[in-house]
Amino acid sequence: MASIRRTLSPARHERLYHNEAAVSSSFTPASQRHLQNGNGKYQSSPHLPLFGVQTLLWRRGWRRSFYRCLLFFILGFFLGIIPFGNIESFPDLKPPLAIVQANDNYVALGIDKKLEDQISELEPEKLLIIVTPTYNRAFQAYFLNRLGQLLRLVKPPLLWIVVEEKAASFETAEILRKTGVMYRHLVTTVNSSIVKDRGVHQRNAALEHMGHHKLDGIVYFADDDNVYSLELFESLRSISRFGTWPVAMLAASKNKAILEGPVCNGSQVIGWHTNEKSKGLRRFHVDMSGFAFNSTILWDPKRWRCPFPNPIRQLDTVKEGFQETTFIEQVVEDESQMEGTPPSCSRILNWHLHLDARNVVYPGGWLLQKNLDVVLPIK
Ligand code: UDP
Ligand code: MN
């Protein structure tokens, strides 16, 4: 049984086949072919018919290998020339098409914008640096959450620098952690109880931070209580040196709305909107939330031929209402260095409403202390 099994087993056949092929590879004619005996000598084969079959098998095997190779070669060749996937999904790397428009007076040469758009998509966006002074009062959570959620909708990169007075509060830290916006939570050590200094020292702490870390982006002072459109933040990235726009605001009396900011011809500033008589003394009629500038002016003033050497700061020595103009005078020489943003300055992008309620109690931890004070009992 064991010997029969061995004879029939494919392994045995294969072994025989290989041996025979090895012997035949001497390329001697079949009639003179010899098999090697155990002593290494050749002798005439006593099994010539068997040898013929073996040769036949070898030839067939050789042919089979050849045809297999040929088959795989052809298969590989066709697989190689068939495109995989959808070629349309690859970016079009062809050079842009030139579009020539002939006219009597000039020839305009344009290029296909598609490739340009693809390249500009790869360029990193300018960093926006939003500076918000804030302090603990009843509406703070509402204001910070509202602004944070808006900033979250702005295309990154955006850095929100939130500056508190005296100490960083747990409540503010909690809100910032949850907004999902990249932020820095700073504290100013300058102690000031003068009302006209609202936010001045906090903004200066942020300016110092930007100068120290050489942050490169567009700086915008966004108080926590103002109302902003998303469009405003999108338009900031087009600013090169100093951009300004008109802001709608409630007059101090709160019984009328006024407009403050530039009058423009395209992006050129040609005049100012202002309603208050005393403001005639100001050089520039811009609200704190009505301008933004390039942060490199703070730490590389030579590059911008800045009228003042460093450090550029908000002043706590000037009369109320003069903080903006005295700051802007350090950043630009005149209107020619300003950019009306967006061009023509005809859109109102944010509102300064002075809605703060300073005397409303600040709830620690945003928790109600007397949660169980039931006014109306449940029946
Ligand atoms: N602010 C502050 N500490 C203060 C008063 C104001 O940090 O003691 C902040 C306030 O949160 C806001 C900015 O400074 O972001 C401007 O303050 P406010 O809105 O009172 O000024 P106004 O709008 O009347 O100029
Ligand atoms: Mn305000």
Automatic annotation (TrEMBL):
Pfam families per UniProt: Glyco_transf_43
Residue positions binding Mn(2+): D225
Keywords per UniProt: Cell wall biogenesis/degradation, Glycoprotein, Glycosyltransferase, Golgi apparatus, Manganese, Membrane, Metal-binding, Signal-anchor, Transferase, Transmembrane, Transmembrane helix
Subcellular location as annotated: Golgi apparatus membrane
TM region(s), chain numbering: 66-85
Function: Involved in the synthesis of glucuronoxylan hemicellulose in secondary cell walls.
Protein name: Glycosyltransferases
Organism: Rubroshorea leprosula
